[in-house]
Amino acid sequence: MNADIRIYVADLAAYNNGKLHGVWINATDDLDDIQEQVNQMLAESPEGFAEEYAIHDYEG
């Protein structure tokens, strides 16, 4: 059994425009590390300016 708990955080600006853009994040990471990974994913959005996100999947 895999002990890792991960979440898939999606960029809603991309999602609403028919694009899949997001990142799998280890949910047991420190909260500040999780937020930094979300911020980095949003900064790399194919839609230019993105600020909204949602958890679309999980594992573990």
Q: Can you put this structure into words, describing what you see?
A:
- A 3-stranded antiparallel sheet has the order 2-1-3.
- It starts with 5 loop residues before the first strand and ends with a strand.
- It has a single domain (6-59), classed as Ubiquitin-like (UB roll) (Roll).
- The protein is α+β, with helices and mostly antiparallel strands.
- It contains 2 helices and 3 strands.
User: Which class of secondary structure composition applies to the elements?
Assistant: alpha+beta
Number of helices: 2
Number of domains: 1
The helix/strand series, from N terminus to C terminus, equals EHEHE
CATH architecture: Roll
Question: In percent, how helical is the residue content?
Answer: 25-40%
Describe the structure concisely for a colleague:
The protein is of the alpha+beta class and 60 residues long. Helix content is 28%, strand content 30%. It has one domain (6-59): Ubiquitin-like (UB roll), CATH 3.10.20.
Topology, element by element:
Elements (H helix, E strand, L loop, with lengths): L5 E6 H4 L6 E5 L4 H13 L9 E7 L1
Antiparallel strand pairs: 1-2, 1-3
Features:
about 60 residues, alpha+beta, Ubiquitin-like (UB roll), three-stranded antiparallel β-sheet, globular
